[in-house]
Amino acid sequence: MRAVGLITEYNPFHNGHLHHLRASRKAAGADVAVAVMSGHFLQRGEPALLDKWLRAEMALRCGVDVVVELPFAFACASAPHFARGAVQCLEALGVDTLCFGSESGDLAELQHCALLLDEHEAQICGKTAALLRQGMHHAAARSRVLAEVSGGDPSSLPLHQPNNILGIEYLRALQNTGSVIQPFTVTRIGAGYHDDAVTSDKIASASGIRKKLAANKAVDDLLPSPSANVLRRSLAERSLPDDDLLHRLLLAQIFRGRDHLQTIYQVESGLDARLKDAAAVSGGWRELVDAVKVRQFTRTRIQRTLMYILNGACAGLMDDLLGAGPLYLRLLGSSPRGRAFLGAARNRRKLPLITNLSRVYAQLKRTYQAGSETFRLACALLDLDLRATRNYTLLLPTWSGRSRDRDFYEDPRHIEPEI
User: Fold this and answer.
1) Distance between CA atoms of residues 218 and 162, nearest Å
2) Which CA distances in Å does 412 have to 15, 337, 345, 356, 364?
3) Which secondary-structure segment (H or E) carries 413?
4) Domain tally for the chain?
């Protein structure tokens, strides 16, 4: 079975995602669509709109065949780490192809940029950092430096648009890991990544949809009907994270003091003091981010740092986890066709597939020798994912009263596609 890999967040699964899914199957000539999806905290440093099981359900009902979780350490990370972790998951699953959306739609152009970034990495990083200190936005700074290296025009390089940036990182990850996965790209249609507009074909960005929800506006026509049904149910049950609860939980962690903050990943010298001062007076989550932000760090970088603080992601451990790469595959759901693929690809899988956490430690011991460094890192990676789930439940306005260790009692969703 030929499988196409998709790297996703589905926050939530909307009409643009359905177009990407169908176009990817066609471009890759695939029988099966396999999604690596972020868990409860996302690449831009925010809690997901819906929990990971509901978002997996959306995807499966709309035609995705397998959904596996991208662990927190990679899901809530900079674009290179996010891309590398996701590509390694797809490679470990035995996927043949990767198809990503891009504003460019030109694979050769994106591959050229990926090659330039690899060949001149040290020079580009150094000069980009200097421009950031002068207050330039990261994408614009990197475009200028890359144009200088290549002798081209900065405006001609596809580095200003978010899907292009991620696409280039996927291509770099494929190259740097020696992956045999064949890449494809499909042109993103409709509203831009940060655009609030709705196009005539009812395609809006995920961020635009979330803004409409926050303003109590209808969004059903922007989502495929199976996805809209899941969202409607979640809204009725008030199972969406609350910014006020997020803010309060963050303050509790920041108030533990600067010594604690200095142990957290990416809390650099001086940032701990800014966090302490901002927490003392901030009135909300967005206000906290605004107060901490400085010109050399993007808003996204600050938000991710706050998610590391919330989830206790220690600096040394995160470096080790990112260096090791994903050490297991966590199945969130599958269709009948997806289960057939997983069975057929069993002998090609390079990492253990976790379907039931009641036996997870025994499974990891069978894969990695107990007491080994790899076993320690696999357990630490899992512990961070479990903590992320517990903390996510604290962001919900209502709670069922069941154990907050949801990872141990939520089984993978086995769902037939509805469209």
Assistant:
1) 26
2) 24, 15, 18, 8, 19
3) strand 413-414
4) 2
21 and 135 in a common domain = no
3-state helix, strand, coil in the chain (%, to 5): 55, 10, 35
**Is the Cβ–Cβ distance between 376 and 393 less than 8 Å?**
no
Beta bridge partners of 44: none
**Given pLDDT bands bounded at 50, 70 and 90, which one contains residue 197?**
low
The pLDDT of residue 327: 98
Would you say the pTM of this structure is higher than 0.85?
Answer: yes
CA distance 311 to 308: 5
Report d(CA 21, CA 62) in Å as an integer: 9
pLDDT in tens, 305-343: 999 999 999 999 999 999 999 999 999 999 999 999 999
Q: Which token pair is 18?
A: 């359905």
Q: What is the pLDDT of residue 26?
A: 97
The boundaries of the domain holding residue 171 are 3-103+165-241+320-414
Q: Is 2:29 a contact under the CB 8 Å cutoff?
A: yes
Q: Does 337 share its domain with 369?
A: yes
State how far the Cα of 383 lies from the Cα of 390, in Å rounded to an integer.
11
Report CA dihedral (77, 46, 228, 412) to the nearest 10 degrees: 50
Task: Locate 65 and state its tokens.
Answer: 């065949």
Report the mean per-residue pLDDT for the chain: 93
SS (H, E, C) 351-375: CCEECCHHHHHHHHHHHCCCCCHHH
